[in-house]
Amino acid sequence: MAHFIFQSLFIGICGTAAMDLWAILLNRATGNPLPNWGLVGRWFAWVPRGRIFHGDITRTPVVRNEVALGWLAHYATGIVYAAALILIAGPDWTANPSFLPAFACGMITILAGWFLLAPGMGAGWAAANTPNPWKSRTLNIAAHTAFALGLWAGALLLA
Fold first, then answer.
1. Which of these, 9, 26, 44, 78, is most buried using a 10 Å CB contact count?
2. Which residues contact 23 (CB under 8 A, 6 or more apart)?
3. Verdict on whether the full-model pTM lies above 0.90
4. What percentage of the chain has pLDDT greater than the value 90?
C-alpha cells in the first residue's frame, strides 16, 4: 500500500507540474493568462457548503486562503487521477510505462473540468459561456496532454 501511495504522489505531482509548466510556457510565449487557482479554491470551499454551481464564481464571496486551497486542490486532484490510472492500468504499467494509458487518463480527466468545474464556476458546460469556447476547449486539451506527458514521465522515472 505504501508503494502505491508513493507512486500516486510522485506520478500525480509530475503530471500536475507538467501542466503548470505548460501554462507558464504558454503565458510567456503568447500572453495567455495563467490559471486562477484562487477561484478554483473558492469553488472547492463552497462545495461542502452545498453550493456546487455558481452563476459567476467571481461574484461568490471570497473564501479565506482560497489561493492556497486552489493550489492544494489542483495537486490533490492530479494525485487522485494518478492513483486511478495506476489502479486501472495495473502494476505492469508502472513497471513498464507506455504513453497510451497516461494519454487516455489525461483526455478522460478533461470531462471533470468540462462537466463539473466549468459549469460549477459559471463558465457553462465545456466552457460554453466563455468568450471563445473552442479556444478554451483547445487549451484544456493541450493542458491535459501536458498532464498526460507528465504522468508518463513520472512513471518512467520510477520504473
1. 78
2. 32, 34, 35, 143
3. yes
4. 99
